[in-house]
Design brief:
alpha/beta; Rossmann fold; 2 domains; eight-stranded mixed beta sheet; seven-stranded mixed beta sheet; 12 helices; 15 strands
Length: about 400
C-alpha cells in the first residue's frame, strides 16, 4: 500500500483512501454494516477480510485507485437509509458492500440499486431479493439462509435421524428456519423457543432431557449461543444428544468463546477453514497475523468481494462507469475465491458447493471446523426462476 489515510466524518463515517492523498480516487466504494452491538463481529470480519484482500492486491482494485467509506447501520433501518443516502449523494459511491440483517437489507437495497449503484451483498438476504425483487445492480456473495437449513434437513434425514429438537429465539427468522428445515426433514421436529435476550436455559435443557431427541439443531446466535452451549455442556445434556447448527452460528467468534463446549458440533456450509483452495489458504495464513484472530466465513466473504471486484474491473478494461460492461464482467469473471469454484446464477446469487463440517480441536488447542465430506455440488437457491432477469449463466470452471 502506498498510503492509508483515515478520517472521521460526521461521527459516523470513516474514509479509507487506498491511494496517495494527492490523487482523487477513480472508484468510490461504500461499506454499510452492523459494526456495533450484537453480531457486530460479522460485519467487522467482512470488512477486515475485504481490506486484507486489497492488501494482497497491492492496494488497488483492478489496477485503479479507490476510496472506501465505512458506515454503521446501528441495527436501525432509519439510520441505514440515512447512511445509504449519504453514500449515494455525498460520496457518490459506484459500489456498495452491504453487511446488514435481512430486514434492513430489504429496505436499503432498492434505494441503492434504484440509484444505479452496484450492491455486493455479504449477508444472507430476504429471499424475495433472489426472486421477484432481484435487480441487475444486486450481486450476492451470500446464499440464502433457507438453503442451508434445507440442506441440513436433507443431511439429517439421510443420516437416519427421526426426532429433532430445534432451540432458538422466538423470532421470525427462527420460524423461517424451522419451516425450511421441515421441507426436507420428514421426521418429528419440536421447537423450543426462548425470549430474545434470555441467558438462563435451565427450562430448555430440562425439556430436552424429557424429549430425548436424536439431535438438537441450534439457532441461537451471539451471546445466546455462547451461554446455551456452556450451560448444555455443564449440565451434561450436550453429551446425551448430537448438536447441529448453521455455519453462521458455529463460526470462529463462537468457537473461541465457548472452547471445548463446542466440540463435535456439526454444520452445513459452503466454506471451511481447511478448504483446500489457494485463496483460502492465504486468507487463513495472513488473517490471524494481521488481526490477531482466526478468519471466519464472514472474513472469507469480504475477501471474495475484493477479489471479485478486482477481477471484474480488469475484465471490463477498467470501464468502471460503464454499467453494462461492469455487470457483464461481474456475472462471468473467474476470480480466486476462498470457496474454490464460484459462479453466479441468473438471479446473480451464488451457485455453491456445500460441505459437512465438524468442530475439532487443532494442534494449538483451538476449536476449528473441519471438513467431513461434500454434501451437494452446484446448489441453486430455488428462486432464480422467479427473477425476471434473463441472461446465460456460465457453467462453473472444471477442476
Amino acid at each position: 500500500m502506498r498510503g492509508l489515510a483515515k478520517r472521521v466524518r460526521c461521527g459516523l463515517a470513516v474514509l479509507l483512501t487506498w491511494s496517495t492523498p494527492a490523487f482523487a480516487a477513480d472508484l468510490n466504494i461504500g461499506f454499510l454494516g452492523t459494526l456495533s452491538g450484537a453480531q457486530a463481529n460479522m460485519a467487522q470480519d467482512q470488512l477486515d477480510g475485504f481490506q486484507l484482500a486489497v492488501k494482497h492486491l497491492g492496494g488497488r482494485l483492478g489496477g485503479v485507485e479507490f476510496a472506501l467509506t465505512v458506515l454503521n447501520d446501528r441495527h436501525d433501518p432509519a439510520a441505514a437509509m440515512q447512511a445509504v443516502q449519504h453514500l449515494l449523494q455525498s460520496e457518490r459511491v459506484q459500489v456498495l458492500l452491504l453487511s446488514t440483517d435481512p430486514r434492513i437489507g430489504a429496505a436499503v437495497v432498492p434505494a441503492a440499486t434504484g440509484g444505479r449503484t452496484f450492491v455486493l451483498n455479504l449477508n444472507a438476504p430476504a429471499p424475495a431479493l433472489a426472486g421477484k425483487e432481484c435487480s441487475p445492480y444486486l450481486f450476492s456473495l451470500s446464499g440464502l439462509a433457507e438453503t442451508m437449513h434445507d440442506l441440513a434437513g436433507q443431511y439429517l434425514q439421510a443420516q437416519g435421524y427421526r426426532n429433532l429438537a430445534v432451540v432458538g429465539p422466538d423470532t421470525a427468522g427462527e420460524r423461517d428456519a424451522v419451516a425450511a428445515l421441515r421441507r426436507s426433514f420428514k421426521g418429528q421436529v419440536t421447537e423450543i423457543a426462548s425470549r430474545r435476550g434470555d441467558m438462563d436455559y435451565s427450562k430448555e435443557l430440562n425439556r430436552l432431557r424429557k424429549l430425548a431427541p436424536d439431535g438438537v439443531y441450534l439457532l441461537y446466535t451471539g451471546g445466546m449461543a455462547v451461554d446455551f452451549l456452556l450451560q448444555s455442556a455443564a449440565s451434561g445434556v450436550k453429551k446425551e444428544m448430537p448438536l447441529f447448527g448453521p455455519p453462521t452460528t458455529l463460526d470462529q467468534s463462537l468457537l473461541a468463546a465457548v472452547g471445548q463446549a463446542s466440540l463435535d458440533a456439526f454444520s452445513i456450509g459452503p466454506w471451511s477453514e481447511d478448504l483446500d483452495a489457494p485463496a483460502n489458504r492465504r486468507l487463513m495464513s495472513d488473517f490471524e497475523s494481521e488481526y490477531g484472530r482466526s478468519a471466519s466465513f464472514f472474513a472469507a466473504e469480504g475477501y471474495d468481494a475484493a477479489m471479485l471486484l478486482d477481477a471484474a474491473i480488469r475484465a471490463a478494461d477498467k470501464k468502471i462507469n460503464d454499467d453494462d460492461a461492469l455487470r457483464g464482467a461481474l456475472r462471468r469473471v473467474d476470480f480466486p475465491s476462498t470457496r474454490g469454484s464460484f459462479h453466479f446464477d441468473t438471479n446473480q446469487f451464488p451457485v455453491q458447493t456445500y460441505f459437512v463440517r465438524q468442530v475439532v480441536q487443532d494442534a494449538r488447542e483451538h476449536m476449528v471446523n473441519e471438513l467431513r465430506g461434500l454434501l451437494a455440488k452446484d446448489v441453486r437457491d430455488g428462486h432464480a426462476g422467479e427473477c425476471p432477469m434473463r441472461w446465460t449463466a456460465e457453467p462453473p470452471p472444471k477442476g
